[in-house]
Amino acid sequence: MQAVIVRRFGGPEVLEIVDVPAPRPGPGQVLVRVAAAAVNRIDLSTRAGRITEAGLIAPAPTVALGWDVAGEVTATGPGVTRFAAGDRVIGLRDLLSAAGTQAEQVVLDEGAVAPAPAGVGDAEASTLPLAGLTADRSLELTGLRRGQTLLVTGAAGVVGGIVLQLAALRGIRTVAAADATDEPLLRRLGAEHVVPRTDRLGAAVRDLVPGGVDAVIDAAVVGIGAHEALRGGGVFVALVAPFAPPPLRGTRVVVQEVYADGARLAELAALAEAGHLTLRVAQTLPLAQVAEAHERIAAGGVRGRLVLLP
Known about the structure:
Largest sheet: 7 strands, mixed
CATH superfamily of the largest domain: Medium-chain alcohol dehydrogenases, catalytic domain
Oligomer: single chain
Shape: globular
Radius of gyration: 19 Å
Protein name: Crotonyl CoA reductase
Mean pLDDT: 95
Structural class: alpha/beta
GO molecular function, one term: oxidoreductase activity
Number of domains: 2
Pfam families: ADH_N, ADH_zinc_N_2
Order of helices and strands: EEEHHEEEEEHHEHEHEHEHEEHEHE
Organism: Couchioplanes caeruleus subsp. caeruleus
Helix content: 25-40%
């Protein structure tokens, strides 16, 4: 089967599509025929070697690309009880797995897989696992209750957009930081207020929410500039550890960590199936254009996910 790998770290030019042996599911695992695999920023970090350097995945002669997937179960290993051949699923590779999802087939642990949302296309469904679990975990870390306020940076991105939608479902009031051209999109996703991402971000938010917001989810890695919008004693959720600001004015700064969680993913899939989550695809591409996908993501400005169709 074909799979995307790197043998050395670097720019998009190091990406290779190679023939590798078809995988077989072991105990507690499912074999998935990949219908769609989203390309995330973590793929760029994996390709560049930053994930390996951080100790999040083990060094290896070749590193497989791809973290989340939509597809169909074609075989199951011993002990699998929740899925059978023919089931349509979505899933997230975990950090201990050497198998990437940007391939024709992938083996995943049963606990990392959930039923795919009915009525949602494979490309759209493939954007949910990593971004959805990241957004859900980030919102959970804020501890916000109905009526409290949240600033979301990078709100027009896939993670930020899901945060807005989940927050709206939970009655949390949101301020979205993004380009002015994205305001119509952000309103549709549930943003109560939209502010431009400028050097005056903190002041702009405080003009809308005197005293500052109760929490910040920093999906755009703004750092201290977003922290200025936070009230004393509020919660700042950083998505990237090196860019987490210090806990000033009695605030609490936490770094979200996302894990493969099939049960939580099933809850998110149910929301998507019910029409409560909009899953955004910018464009679908064949596996052969994976380098182009990396280049476009690095250049910025992509709204929605680029998705590979093996």
